[in-house]
Amino acid sequence: MQKKVYIIEHDLISPIAIGRENIVDGIKLNKSADSQIKRLDVSGLPFRKGAEIKEDLSKYYTEETDELKALFTLDRKLELLATTWGKSKNRLGSILNKCEPERTGVILGIGAEAIPLTYFEQELTQFIDKKLNAISELITALNSKSGALNTVSNPYDIYTLYLAEKFNARAFQKSILTACVSSTQAIAQAYDSILRGKADVIIAGGTDSIINLIALISFGKLGVIPETGTNNLCRPFDTNRFGTIAGEAAGFVIMASQDFVNKHNLKPLASIIGYGNTLDGYKITAPDQNATAMSKAILDAIKQSKISANDYDYFYAHGTGTRQNDSVELKAIQTALGNHANAIPISSTKDRHGHAIAAAGIQELCILLELMKNDLIPGNLNLQNSIEPDMNLPKENFSQKINYALTSNFAFGGINTVLAVKNEQ
Amino acid sequence: MEIFIVDSSHTSSNSFEEKRVTSLIPQSFLSGRIINDKDSEFYPNRGDEKIMRSETIAALILVNQLIQKYKSKLSLDETGLFVASGVFIENLEKHLGHIVKFINTIKESSNEKEKYRKIYFASPPLLALQTLTNSTMSFIAQYSGIKGNNATYGNTSLSGFHAIEEACDEAYYNNREALACASNCAGEYSFLVHSPFFNSSKNWKESAAAGALLLSSKIIFDSKYKITALKYSTNNDYLNSNHIERNWKKLLPDLNADALIFSGAFTEEINLNDLLYCKKLNPNSISIFDTLGNMGPANLFASINKGIELLKSGLKKIDIVDSDVFGRESLIRIETI
Question: Which regions of A258-403 does DSSP assign to beta strands (E)?
Fold first, then answer.
């Protein structure tokens, strides 16, 4: 009989909750982080809103070195990750003491790099005046004073290195760069790694922020962020949906083998019981309208879990609120679940916390763990006119035990990753 | 674990030039780029080409050439695809130049709103796609039809090892064929990212490359070579000590290999030190640096290709080692069947 892969701890820094203990209140109160972006001047962009973490996070990483603190001001992803660690480290002490470094690994999903050019406008203009390659000169100048890490433009591995050092995790340090499924794949690979005996404990998660000029322009230009106007709420699964909310988040789950949990008499929160992970192989700019690979990812997760599709009682959808994603996603669910697709509650929470891209999967898994703990299914906050009226897309939150859930994320470029999760609480 | 190498392919840079990217670093560096064959039957269409980097196109072509040979024996819906990528900016000034241009144009202006409005409208519509971290993987899937288990790792050279390891695991544990692939962009931005990690960037050399390995746990493909060992190390002390020391000896299963191929250096000086270190482990130590420089995640793929050449010439067992910019090391042993 296949051994279990448990989740024994988790934490999240999200626009709707700083820390896991605040997640459920945020959901119950229908808190939405969709508001005017404050961290940078977006007055000239066609959209002004985003799901931004507005709290000053520096109090969570006071013990870090000055060098790292300086980096955090330029690298939001690293700051969010450091905050997640700082927020949870005291609580995690008892688990850390039980972990053997050589049997503990880290796998993180990491979002794309964003060079914070607007911080250095003056320097850039000086280089331009001298008729030099301004960006190259700027990067060189900033990094010439660096210590162990660059001031800007670091390899993507610094995030896994950071967390591996904190957890003293020496088994492996992997960075996954598959856009919106990055952290979902990190969890799937952690599941495999534990089943294959490569580690006893794995810290899996991710960090990302697209609240920066380059990312906002990039996503805006792709037409996935609705322009400022009267109807610009993020409305997953609504006939009048115009796009998603730019977001940011960091989080991790601590996954452990059944033997580790038994040996240390730990109480697991949930277990990962399967996953599906497929490629559309269709077109880089759009999902396959037939949803073939997307539905296969759902089916693969169900098949691996050895739980009947009808026994799943919640589908936590990717639901971005974009024209492209939502209808294809519902089609995939219909194909994979058959008649059960009309019965199972399906909801997305991106209308509350925005799209954290590489951290979307970990953000939503952390939320799911709290939903499971509190027997709560979130409604689709801004849904008015469902694109599939026959499907169970609740508008209101409601109380229901979640025994088994599927949670999905789909990435630009046609990557489909679905996790099957069992409530162990 | 023994995994059969069904086939291996590698595309190296075919054009090298001395580059100097900044007035702040006095010396130039040697940079290799790939000039792709536009007549290839697998060359992407013009719409896609616009948003693809050269090494992504190279990876696309070589994977499709590989797949073509084995298509009848592969179930592409189930074939795994594990990719490692280096930096994602091929031309820094071209990629972000529009922002600089507009900052400069309106530098006298105190109107921030107007400034950002202009930057927004000057930005290319497909900005996100040009630097999409999974573009190599997604384009390979789009053009080859591979739809199985997948991931893109990045972006130091260790990610090449992770792609190969995961493809081996897919073949071994799930009994499915899997493709490991790497694409390395190299160039100016890679130099700017990596050179500050070293005391000197004198005699720096790096090049764009793409590599692929088709792996299987079954011998139905008439494979002649196999992977018999995969090992790696971590370096948790890097952030505190900023210290790198070669320790490949610890990874070697034994000292019985017929040759040792090593990579990881970005400069001639470090490569020479590595050679001296490796010669103590194996007198037949070979570096791919001399001809191609550092190829990031594609290092291991180029070395495996070289190793297979050596196996074809009669050697039986080759050790291949690499080190990334943070001193994390990896070993792959290949042998004849």
Answer: 270-279, 314-316, 346-347, 376-377, 398-399
- A361 in contact with chain B, both atoms CB, cutoff 8 A: no
Helix axes B92-105, A213-221, angle to 10 degrees: 100
B:239-268 residues touching chain A, CB 8 A cutoff = 239-242
- What percentage of chain B's residues is helix, strand, coil (to nearest 5)? 40, 25, 35
Q: Tell me, what DSSP letter sits at residue B43?
A: P
Residues A250 and A263: their CA atoms lie apart, in Å, by 30
Domain boundaries, chain B: 3-91+128-216, 92-127, 228-336
pTM above 0.80, yes or no: yes
Q: Is B142 left (phi over 0), alpha (psi -120 to 50) or beta?
A: alpha
Of the candidates A411, A421, A413, A424, which has an alpha carbon nearest to the alpha carbon of residue A185?
A: A411
Average pLDDT rounded to a whole number, residues A389-411 = 98
Q: What superfamily would CATH give domain B3-91+128-216?
A: Thiolase/Chalcone synthase (3.40.47.10)
Question: From the CA atom positions of chain A, what is the Rg in Å?
Answer: 21
Contact A210, A49 (CB under 8 A): no
Tokens of residue B320, six digits: 């291949």
B residues 142-161 closer than 8 Å to A (CB) = 142, 144-156, 158-159
Q: What is the pLDDT of residue B235?
A: 84
For the stretch B282-285, contacts whose Cβ atoms lie closer than 8 Å and that sit 24 or more positions apart, written own/partner, are B282/B255, B282/B257, B282/B319, B284/B258, B284/B259, B284/B260, B285/B259, B285/B260, B285/B261
- Do the Cβ atoms of A4 and A258 come closer than 8 Å? yes
Examine domains B3-91+128-216 and B228-336 and report if their fold is the same.
yes
Q: Which of A10, A318, A340, A353 is catalytic?
A: A318
Angle at A99 between CA A95 and CA A105, to 5 degrees: 110
Q: Rounded to an integer, what distance in angstroms lies between the CA atom of residue B139 and that of residue B150?
A: 13
Cα gap A41→B144, rounded to integer Å = 43
Short-list B20, B177, B1, CA closest to A136: B20
Q: What is the mean pLDDT of each run of 10 residues along chain B (337 residues)?
A: 95 95 90 97 95 95 96 94 94 78 68 83 82 94 97 97 98 97 95 92 96 92 94 86 88 97 97 98 97 97 98 98 96 97
Q: What does R_g of chain B's alpha carbons equal in angstroms?
A: 21
Tell me whether residue A10 is one of the annotated catalytic residues. Answer: no
**A234 classed as catalytic:** no
SS3 at position A34: strand
Query: Are A113 and B103 an interchain contact pair (Cβ–Cβ within 8 Å)?
Result: no
Instruction: State which fold the A5-116+152-423 domain adopts.
Output: Peroxisomal Thiolase; Chain A, domain 1 (3.40.47)
| CATH class name, domain B228-336 | alpha beta
For chains A and B, what is the number of CB pairs under 8 angstroms?
A: 249
Question: What is the predicted ipTM?
Answer: 0.97
| B112: contact with A, CB 8 A cutoff | yes
How far is Cα B150 from Cα B146, in angstroms, rounded to an integer?
10
d(CA A20, CA A367): 8
